[in-house]
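Example record for the data management plan.
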Amino acid sequence: MAESFSTPRKDPASTNRSPEELVPDHCDHSEHQRGPTRLLFKPKGGEKRRQAERITTRRSVLLRIGDDTHHVSLLDLSPTGSRVLNNAQLPIETRVVIDLLPEITLDATIRWCKTDVDGFQLGVHFDEPLAFETVWKVRAHRD
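Corresponding structural encoding:
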């Protein structure tokens, strides 16, 4: 499982911690390393983070980019996006289609990417939000 960084960005002068300890919990173009996770990209648009509650899950879904199909693991899901684990690194701002269930296919954009001991974690933002009931339906579905 990837290490999660929940340290908010702060002015180093306003804390007792060094700038190296203030590693962001999203992708960054830095060389910061901590454990098995290496941050790769920083999403555009500043520090605005999650817009909705995420539900942890672990199931296989399809992520399509044009004619390429990636079998990915869905790690968490919210009405506005998801976190998936992929074998391949994908660039931020890549347009994708994610098949959560055969009847639930969404257009989306990759917002961030970071290395993980099992591959690459990707932050996926949906073009149109899901109803929360649909989020629970996806979580409850068994492959």
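Summary line stored alongside the record: The radius of gyration is 16 Å.
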